């Protein structure tokens, strides 16, 4: 990341809350500009994060424009195989990309505009038991204005056997639900 790149506070906060650790594999959902990919990769140890033969970070986005932007932004890491960028909706995610230790989404609206059952099922297929899932939302400079969005998210998570809500978080940068993957069997595809 160049020093002139602005990192939205909500993205930096979400990555800090997720707390990616060296040796982990992370799924970045709806990566948009790729800023979150860079922050996650840095937390995982940068160039040393590669755990051959699997990339340390897999970034997905439904937008071909976003995918191209992420690939350009993380070109060196993509070339080294440390980062894999895919054009995919979360519901259509290839289960063979897993397992992941953690998953991150920032402002991915499917979690609060639908019941997100297909997306949560896809996450259950790729997150290992005990893996962390952070679903964050932040609208910017209005502190805690978005906290209500997470009521539906927490409710949707609670209806599945695959995740347990650990905590709801709120800060000046946004709100989030942090959940853990249970040992319940993943649904068939």
Layout: helices, strands, pairs:
Elements: H1 9-18, E1 26-29, H2 35-43, E2 57-61, H3 64-73, H4 75-80, E3 83-87, E4 100-106, H5 110-113, H6 117-126, E5 127-137, H7 149-158, E6 163-171, E7 174-181
Parallel strand pairs: 1-2, 1-4, 2-3, 4-5
Antiparallel strand pairs: 5-7, 6-7
List the main descriptive attributes of the protein structure presented here.
single chain; 189 residues; alpha/beta; 7-stranded mixed sheet; 31% helix
Could you please describe the fold and organization of this structure?
- By secondary structure, the chain is an alpha/beta fold.
- The chain is built from 7 helices and 7 strands.
- Strands 3-2-1-4-5-7-6 form a 7-stranded mixed β-sheet, sandwiched between helices.
- Helix 2 (35-43) links the parallel strand 1 (26-29) and strand 2 (57-61).
- The longest helix is centred in the first third of the chain and has 10 residues, at 9-18.
- The protein starts with 8 loop residues before the first helix and ends in an 8-residue tail after the last strand.
Task: Write a short abstract of this structure.
The chain is an alpha/beta fold. It has helices spanning 9-18, 35-43, 64-73, 75-80, 110-113, 117-126, 149-158, and strands at 26-29, 57-61, 83-87, 100-106, 127-137, 163-171, 174-181.
């Amino acid at each position: 990341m160049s020093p002139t790149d602005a990192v939205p506070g909500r993205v930096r906060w979400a990555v800090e809350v997720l707390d990616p650790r060296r040796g982990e594999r992370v799924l970045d959902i709806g990566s948009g500009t790729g800023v979150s990919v860079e922050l996650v990769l840095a937390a995982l140890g940068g160039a040393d994060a590669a755990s051959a033969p699997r990339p340390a970070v897999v970034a997905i986005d439904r937008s071909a424009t976003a995918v191209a932007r992420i690939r350009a932004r993380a070109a060196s890491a993509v070339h080294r195989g440390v980062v894999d960028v895919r054009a995919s909706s979360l519901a259509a995610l290839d289960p063979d990309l897993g397992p992941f230790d953690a998953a991150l989404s920032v402002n991915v609206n499917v979690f609060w505009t639908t019941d997100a059952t297909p997306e949560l099922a896809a996450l259950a297929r790729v997150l290992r038991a005990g893996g962390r899932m952070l679903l964050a939302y932040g609208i910017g400079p209005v502190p805690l204005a978005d906290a209500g969005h997470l009521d539906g998210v927490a409710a949707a998570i609670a209806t599945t056997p695959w995740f347990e809500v650990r905590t709801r978080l709120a800060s000046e940068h946004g709100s989030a639900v942090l959940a853990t993957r249970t040992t319940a069997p993943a649904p068939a595809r």
